[in-house]
């Protein structure tokens, strides 16, 4: 007889550090994760102005290895990955045969026959199973490496100044969307110049036994130019508002099995020549303009359009879409949201409304992203 007792939450190697720092811990995809430490707004602004440090050890790490690993991934996901040079990365998606999104991924080519796939925490088991099925017939195999890595993200405009003294070698030479082995405070790590905040930064893959060392050393580091305070730990709440301002989709909100990359405005990542799972369905969607598209909304007042709220015509007479993510924007000082809207209503400047707790609140359609980092 199946037990009704829920499985205990998984804990990252940094769990004790979060609790010692007074973090508010929440259940996120079966993991106990820090939502915030003290102020999510302060954490958000620290990333925009200085440096924030995130524990992302709940994310899924999966390797595809073998002589035909690149060709196998070309078949499995929507992008041509085999063309990547060693130590380069690409954002892509794993789609169902009907074109719906199963997960969005970052894939790193570590070396000729070894690729690292980073999946969302809630989907890591599904991604591993799908990849295993899709590489059958290729000289390649899938290895679940989730237990082998912790992941720490260091994000913000002062990141180079903070991390460079801790890392052997020239950190600035690592270009955007590249990855390389390095030593950070004596720990062997993989450094990827990637992120989910709209700022420059690095994601540090580190062995679980070294994760606390890396976390503590980064948080204790100071900017050698002395213009900002030490890095601050940041939780899931700040990560969500940062990615929202940057117009980055979140699986389960902007991305799902009921949406294709085209509705989400990400058709550019789909190979037009590939023979991947879902290519016929996605070719058909590319040929027919989508009925709905993802767009940005800025509220005229202070009430926040939240996920699931109905988007209405300006006069409130009919529903024209639905909010997928919404929050107050610390950078803009106004509530913002992303929503799927009727395609004819996605032009910037279009006036609409959102139903917020029974009342109609004015919003304006804007181009995504809401925020771009200076320079």
Tell me about this structure:
The protein is of the alpha+beta class and 375 residues long. It has 3 domains: 10-57 and 149-245, 2-Layer Sandwich (Gyrase A, domain 2), CATH 3.30.1360.120; 60-147, Aminomethyltransferase beta-barrel domains (Alpha-Beta Plaits), CATH 3.30.70; 291-366, Beta Barrel (Elongation Factor Tu (Ef-tu), domain 3). 18% of the residues lie in helices and 33% in strands. The protein is built from 8 helices and 20 strands. A 6-stranded mixed beta sheet has the order 11-12-13-10-4-14.
For the record, the count of structural domains works out to 3
Quickly name the level 1 CATH class of the largest domain. Answer: Alpha Beta
The gross shape turns out to be: globular
Task: Please give the alpha-carbon distance between the first and last residues.
Answer: 60 Å
User: How many alpha or pi helices?
Assistant: 8
Helix/strand structural class: alpha+beta
Number of strands: 20
Q: Can you list the strand order of the major beta sheet?
A: 11-12-13-10-4-14
What portion of the residues fall into strands of 2 or more residues?
25-35%
The quaternary organization reads as single chain
CATH fold call of the largest domain:
Gyrase A, domain 2
Mean pLDDT: 96
The unreliable regions are none
The H-level CATH homologous superfamily of the largest domain, spelled out, is Probable tRNA modification gtpase trme, domain 1
Fraction in helix? 10-25%
How large, in whole angstroms, is the Cα Rg? 21 Å
Sketch the topology as an H/E string, one letter per element: EHEEHEEHEEEHEEHEEEHEHHEEEEEE
Second CATH tier, the architecture of the largest domain: 2-Layer Sandwich
Largest sheet: 6 strands, mixed
């Amino acid at each position: 007889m199946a037990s009704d007792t829920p499985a205990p939450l998984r804990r990252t190697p940094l769990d004790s550090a979060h609790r010692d720092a007074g973090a508010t811990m929440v259940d996120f995809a079966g993991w106990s994760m820090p939502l915030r430490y003290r102020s999510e707004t302060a954490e958000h602004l620290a990333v925009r102005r200085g440096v924030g440090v995130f524990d992302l050890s709940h994310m899924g790490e999966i390797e595809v290895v073998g002589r035909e690993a690149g060709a196998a991934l070309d078949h499995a996901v929507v992008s041509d990955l085999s063309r990547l040079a060693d130590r380069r990365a690409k954002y892509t998606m794993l789609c169902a045969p009907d074109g719906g999104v199963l997960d969005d991924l970052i894939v790193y080519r570590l070396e000729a026959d070894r690729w690292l796939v980073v999946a969302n925490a809630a989907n890591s088991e599904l991604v591993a199973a799908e990849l295993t099925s899709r590489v059958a017939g290729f000289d390649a195999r899938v290895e679940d490496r989730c237990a082998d890595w912790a992941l720490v993200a260091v994000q913000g405009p002062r990141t180079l100044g903070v991390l460079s003294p801790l890392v052997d070698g020239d950190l600035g030479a690592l270009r955007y969307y590249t990855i390389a082995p390095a030593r950070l405070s004596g720990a062997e790590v993989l450094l990827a110049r990637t992120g989910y905040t709209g700022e420059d930064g690095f994601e540090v893959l580190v062995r679980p036994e070294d994760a606390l060392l890396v976390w503590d050393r980064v948080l204790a580091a100071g900017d050698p130019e002395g213009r900002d305070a030490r890095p601050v730990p940041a939780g899931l709440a700040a990560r969500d508002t940062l990615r929202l301002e940057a117009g980055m989709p979140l699986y389960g909100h902007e991305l799902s099995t009921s949406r294709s990359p085209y509705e989400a405005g990400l058709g550019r990542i789909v190979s037009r020549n590939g023979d991947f799972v879902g290519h016929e369905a996605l070719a058909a969607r590319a040929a027919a303009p989508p009925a709905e598209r993802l767009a940005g909304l800025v509220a005229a007042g202070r009430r926040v359009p939240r996920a699931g709220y109905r988007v209405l015509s300006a006069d409130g007479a009919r529903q024209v879409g639905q909010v997928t993510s919404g929050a107050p924007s610390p950078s803009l000082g106004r509530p913002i949201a992303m929503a799927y809207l009727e395609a004819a209503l996605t032009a910037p400047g279009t006036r609409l409304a959102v139903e917020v707790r029974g009342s109609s609140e004015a919003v304006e359609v804007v181009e995504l992203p809401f925020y771009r980092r200076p320079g």
